[in-house]
Amino acid sequence: MTSSTLILLPGLMCDDEAWASLYPHLPAGTTPRVIDYGMANSITAMAELVLQQAPTEYFALAGHSMGGRAALEVVRLAPQRVTHLALLDTGHLPRPAGDAGAQEAAKRHALLDIARMQGVRAMAQTWVQGMVHPARVQDTVLIESVVAMFARKSAGVFAAQIEALLARPDASDVLCTLTVPTLLLCGAQDAWSTPAQHADMQKLAPHAVLDVIEDAGHMSLMERPEAVAQSLTRWLQRTAA
C-alpha cells in the first residue's frame, strides 16, 4: 500500500514549526500532517492519538526525537497502516536502571523546575544550548525559532511529556520486525541521540538506511532542513522489498 500522506511526529515541546522548513523540498504531491499530542503523558497515548488523527488509512510516518519513539509505538500498535518509517535523532531503549536513569530523571526535572518557576521560555533558552551544533548557538534566528516554539507550550505539557519519556518503552522488538522502507537519521554532532545510537538501531533493523547529517546537532531538521528533506525524499521514493 502507498499513500501521499506523510505524518510527522514532533519531539519534546516541538510543533509544526520544527518541520515547516522541510516542506518546500519534499516530493510534489506529498501531504504532510503534524500531530499535536495535547496532554498525552505516555508514549502509547501519543501513538493512539496518531492513529485516531491520521487522515488516511495508510501513511508514511516520520518522528523526531520523542516523536521517533511515538512512531515506533504506532508501528507496534498498527503495523499494517505504516508504509514507510523514518526515525530522526531518536532512540529505542527505555530509561536505564540505576544511577544513569536517576541522573536522567534529575536533569529532566531540573528543567521542569525552571519552566515552572521562571517560565517555559527561560527553560528553552537553557535546553537549546546543547541541542544544536555548537557553531549554531550564536545563530539568533535559529535559536529564537526553537525557543519561541517551546514557549508556545505550557509547563503542564512539559511535565506530561517528561513523564512519557521517563516511562518510555523498549522498542527493540519493533525494530526487529520492521519490513517497510526505514530511515534512521541524525545530526553528526547530536550529543543527545548520537550517530552511534542510530547505528545500534540499524543492527536491529539491518535493511534501514542510516543517514548522518553533517554540521547538525539534535535539531537537525531545523538546522539543516534541505539536507534532511533530501534524505526524506529518497526514503519516500523507496518501495518495500
TrEMBL record:
State whether keyword Hydrolase applies: yes
Q: Which GO terms describe its molecular function?
A: hydrolase activity
**Could you tell me the superkingdom of the organism this chain comes from?**
Bacteria
Which keywords fit this entry according to its UniProt record? Hydrolase
Protein name, UniProt field: Alpha/beta hydrolase
Sorted alphabetically, which SUPFAM superfamilies does this protein's record hold?
A: alpha/beta-Hydrolases
Q: Where is the AB hydrolase-1 domain?
A: 6-230
Is tRNA-binding one of the keywords UniProt gives this record? Answer: no
Pfam short name (any one): Abhydrolase_6
Q: Which InterPro entries match?
A: AB_hydrolase_1, AB_hydrolase_fold, Carboxylesterase_BioH, Epox_hydrolase-like
